[in-house]
Amino acid sequence: MPDKRPDFYALLGLLRSATQEEIRRAYHKAAKRLHPDTNQAPGETELFLDVQKAYQVLSDPARRSSYDATLGPEESIPPVVDNRILLSRKQICRLREPQLIYVLMDLIPSEEQKKAAAGVPLNLCLVLDCSTSMKGERLDTVKATAIQIIRKLKPHDIFSVIAFNDRAEVVIPATRQQGSTHKLETKIQLLQTGGGTEIFKGLEAGFEEIQRYANPKTVSHIILLTDGRTYGDEAQCYDLAKRAAEQGIGISGLGIGSGWNDIFLDQLASSTGGTAMYVSQPKDIERLLNEKFSNLSKTFAENVVLDFKPADGVSVSYSFRLQPEAAPLGKQTPIQLGPILQDWPLSVLIEFLIQPLDSEQDSVELINGKLEISAAALNTTFPPVPIQLAVPVKDTITPEPPPPALVQALSKLTLYRLQEKARADVDAGNYEKATEHLQRMATHMLAQGERSLAKTIMLEVENIEKEKKFSEAGEKQIKYGTRALLLPGERKP
After folding, report:
1. Roughly how many angstroms between the first and final C-alpha of the chain, as a whole number?
2. How many C-beta neighbours within 10 Å does residue 203 have?
3. 168: left (phi over 0), alpha (psi -120 to 50) or beta
4. How far apart are CA 224 and CA 168, in angstroms?
5. Residue 333 dihedral angles phi and psi, to the nearest 5°
6. Rounded to two decimals, what is the model's pTM?
7. φ, ψ for residue 86 (rounded to 5)?
């Protein structure tokens, strides 16, 4: 009879070549996510025991060797995703100065795994800002949209709601939608505003609720809605986001109006593979929140992590997710790349900075690591995907044009990076340089027919010249307006 034991390497998210240190780190990460003290989902105690067994075997060299002898060929495992990787240059010249090289990575579900994908329960928590500034149309629209989402939940979905101001309240504890939604809707309708904005308290309460059912068989996500700035607890929020990422829990944010901190919300979301969105008008809350819910419902892989140690003289100087949800990514590895949807691939652009090359170097290693893919839709475990990428070094090269798809991606990203440069120049007091960047952006926007955004940019040029700063509303309209232009008009299969 064939052996039905789980793959110990896959359980811990490891390659078979994993070092003892990697095994130790993977075990601690899995144990935090699955420990019965924090995870109450049915069946997770058994999975936790399997993880313990895997660690006991793999951490013992003799037992690991015996176990490895029972395994079939590693290449026999079907691929989880198909990937296309494009480089801006097939080879680089040996120079005594820094060089940039770009990598475009597209990841889509493999046809075999796409057929095997099953409907995945959502473990969703809404963390709602109910401070005084949310009074009126803002909170009314949030409540109406939350009720829409409740009505869309499937019986196996888990849903919770936290309301916060200067304290947090569990409005709806994590529960599966069963039968009538009237009681849940009434709790939402009774929400009222008051007090200040302390985001950490809301996130902490939301994390505790969603953690109860967070496991590899669900898509667990916190959606934070706020219109204000939190003060003094940003570091606590970042630490919580790090813990959430370790447990496979994503965080996304909707910033309403102009008074919230976009840098904070972007960093908070990107550290978990989530995204931050700008809500300029209360009427947009319904569209964006429903769009986020729809994306979560169509998740193939809830988060892909690119884990590698950069080679000496090589660093990630910029990374950006182009789709399915455009957002800046981190520079430090591992990089949380974000989700793959069933009908929309994950597309990421990474800029590498290569330091001056020595006379004996014949290649530059950009990536030697793995893609860790969390895919509850597959209802099974599988090992990470190895990824190696190196570029030959030559004394002389014949220049070749970059692949058209990569050129297109860079072209789209140029306008977004111009607004980043303009913001950095304003912060540094280089106002003339900042307005030059913005004027270039406005010219491009007019050429693309984006007249409204071009007008906003030119108004900010005037504001910088007079006030030596961006306006809060204009700064966000330009940032998220140029980000929205990066998304394709239609989803690609």
Report:
1. 40
2. 27
3. beta
4. 13
5. -90, 150
6. 0.86
7. -115, 140
Taking each helix axis as running N to C, give the angle between helix 262-270 and helix 472-484, from 0 to 180 degrees, rounded to the nearest 10. 40
Phi, psi of 330 (to 5 degrees): -80, 170
CA distances from 261 to 97, 221, 331 (A): 37, 21, 21
pLDDT for res 2:
42
Span 288-343, pLDDT tens digits: 999 999 999 988 888 899 999 889 999 999 999 999 999 999 898 899 999 999 88
Give the pLDDT confidence of 194-214 residue by residue, as tens digits.
999 999 999 999 999 999 988
User: In the block, which residue shows the tokens 């569990």?
Assistant: 170
339 phi and psi angles, rounded to 5 deg: -90, 155
Cα(12)–Cα(381) distance, integer angstroms = 9
Hey, what amino acid is at 16? R
Q: Give the torsion sign (CA, 375, 378, 379, 383).
A: negative
Predicted confidence band at 231 (pLDDT cuts at 50, 70, 90)? confident
User: Would you say how long the chain is, in residues?
Assistant: 493
Q: Is the pLDDT of residue 36 over 70?
A: no
Q: What are phi and psi of 365, to 5 degrees?
A: -85, 115
Pairing of strands 314-323, 385-394: unpaired
Phi, psi of 149 (to 5 degrees): -65, -40
Contacts of 428 (CB under 8 A, 6+ apart): none
* 2-25 mean pLDDT: 76
344: which DSSP letter? B
d(CA 477, CA 392): 42
